[in-house]
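Dear H.,

Thanks for agreeing to be a second pair of eyes. The structure we're designing against is below in token form, covering all 203 positions.
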């Protein structure tokens, strides 16, 4: 059943990918921090200006909070995020010689980075195994009966990682995300187009 779900998701969304715009690992990390509780589209509107002014982790580490706030003010929680990305940059320099780390354990020590963000950086940025659980992945995993309704994001992440091969974690994240974002929506899911209607717990 797990293989069937994985393969069908990939058939539905063979091009599922990170929809944040970035050119390097620094831009990816900052964009993912900014994307918490905000759409990727919104983040993509502010990052060109942000990265033009602060093209490196060193440049951002020296930024004034007020200047960063002005650039990203249309992003949700912009005041907290402005502080986070500046402090993130400072800590990357002071503790990791300016190189964004490539382990989950090190990444989650940085400001603004939790397990979801770390998993995205690992897979999308470094091509390493990572399975991020956002609101879409959480909702779809529960509707498909892969996890329990009362499981939190950590429980969901750990359960999915046990169910699926490590090499498939990142692909699974993106296909579940696209499925939740474009078909199995929180409000008004498109059940008539769903191949999993027979196993859906929501029906």
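And this is the sequence the design step returned. I haven't edited it by hand at all.
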């Amino acid at each position: 059943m797990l293989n069937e779900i994985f393969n069908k998701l990939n058939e539905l969304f063979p091009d599922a990918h990170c929809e944040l715009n970035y050119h390097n690992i620094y831009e990816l990390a900052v964009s993912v921090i900014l994307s918490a509780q905000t759409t990727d589209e919104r983040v993509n509107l502010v990052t060109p200006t942000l990265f033009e002014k602060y093209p490196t982790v060193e440049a951002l580490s020296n930024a004034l909070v007020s200047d960063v706030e002005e650039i990203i003010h249309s992003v949700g929680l912009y005041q907290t995020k402005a502080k986070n990305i500046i402090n993130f940059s400072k800590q990357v320099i002071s503790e990791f010689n300016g190189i964004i780390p490539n382990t989950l354990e090190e990444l989650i020590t940085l400001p603004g980075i939790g397990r979801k963000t770390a998993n995205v950086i690992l897979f999308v940025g470094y091509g390493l195994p990572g399975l991020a659980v956002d609101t879409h992945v959480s909702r779809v995993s529960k509707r498909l009966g892969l996890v329990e309704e009362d499981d939190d994001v950590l429980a969901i992440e750990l359960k999915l990682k046990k169910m699926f091969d490590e090499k498939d974690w990142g692909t699974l994240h993106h296909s579940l995300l696209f499925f939740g974002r474009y078909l199995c929506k929180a409000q008004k899911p498109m059940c008539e187009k769903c191949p999993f209607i027979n196993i859906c717990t929501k029906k």
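Two observations from my side: Residues 116 and 149 are 19 Å apart (CA to CA). DSSP finds eleven helices and no strands in the chain.

Warmly,
E.
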